[in-house]
């Protein structure tokens, strides 16, 4: 907590993203993918891949203690939603080596992340149980993932970026959990404090365009609670977040009714 300086974090991230764009353009030109420069969807996915390739690992220490506690609870068949380049793969590896995990599906629709995701799985010793799934939630059944077959869903810094269909997506994901299955959550959300939330709304005018659709203002915790019938809801705002925190987090666990 840095007091009022916490408000500077989102603009700093925007600057980092903007500085990554020229590198992305040069990379696409050098690789002969000039057509992607005229396709906004492909351009923004590649742009975010380049940004997250260095910013993800660089920012990991800020969130690692909380996220590691979540991954330690993973068990059985796991749906890891939006793993990006796989910066939390080692945490999955720890749980797998402890005998808690049988199978991991890494659901990452941004195809630019597939190679680093596979490399991270191999480095963590998960190549035999890790399966990348280059698809959106509505297409999971095409990859042999059956509804009611998943023990653990993990979402870390991903529900902010799934577009306006968040309620439908969380409802759909709920269907894949077994009775008694769990959803582990670490997401940045809209602030409940007037000043920080007003600042989020101002920054959010630009933020989604430079961060691949990410939304600073979502009430993700409320949407998750309404996704289905939960037996246990232990989902709270991070107590470490201060009054000026412009990227506050909700963290916790939900368990599907048996």
TrEMBL record:
Stretches that traverse the bilayer: 12-30
Could you tell me which Pfam families the record lists for this protein?
Methyltransf_23
User: What is the designated name of this protein?
Assistant: S-adenosyl-L-methionine-dependent methyltransferase
Q: Which domain of life is it from?
A: Eukaryota
Alphabetized, the UniProt keywords read: Membrane, Methyltransferase, Transferase, Transmembrane, Transmembrane helix
Q: InterPro entries, per this entry?
A: SAM-dependent_MTases_sf (IPR029063), Thiol_S-MT (IPR052356)
Q: Name one GO molecular function term.
A: methyltransferase activity
């Amino acid at each position: 907590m840095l007091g009022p300086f916490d408000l500077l974090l989102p603009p700093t991230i925007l600057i980092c993203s903007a500085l990554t764009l020229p590198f992305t353009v040069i990379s696409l030109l050098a690789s002969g993918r000039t057509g992607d420069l005229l396709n906004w969807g492909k351009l923004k996915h590649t742009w975010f891949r380049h940004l997250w390739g260095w910013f993800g690992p660089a920012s990991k220490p800020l969130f690692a203690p909380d996220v590691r506690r979540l991954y330690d609870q993973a068990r059985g068949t796991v749906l890891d939603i939006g793993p990006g380049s796989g910066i939390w793969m080692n945490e999955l590896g720890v749980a797998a080596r402890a005998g808690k995990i049988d199978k991991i599906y890494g659901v990452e629709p941004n195809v630019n992340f597939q190679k680093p995701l596979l490399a991270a799985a191999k480095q963590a010793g998960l190549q035999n149980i890790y399966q990348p799934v280059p698809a959106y939630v509505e297409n999971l059944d095409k990859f042999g993932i059956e509804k009611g077959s998943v023990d653990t869903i993990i979402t870390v810094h991903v529900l902010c970026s799934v577009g306006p269909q968040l309620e439908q997506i969380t409802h759909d994901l709920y269907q894949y959990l077994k009775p008694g299955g769990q959803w582990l959550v670490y997401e940045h959300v809209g602030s409940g404090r007037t000043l920080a939330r007003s600042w989020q709304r101002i920054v959010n005018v630009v933020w989604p365009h430079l961060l691949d659709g990410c939304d600073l203002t979502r009430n993700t915790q409320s949407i998750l609670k309404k996704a289905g019938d939960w037996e246990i809801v232990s989902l709270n705002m991070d107590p470490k977040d201060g009054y000026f925190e412009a990227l506050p987090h909700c963290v916790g666990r939900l368990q599907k009714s048996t």
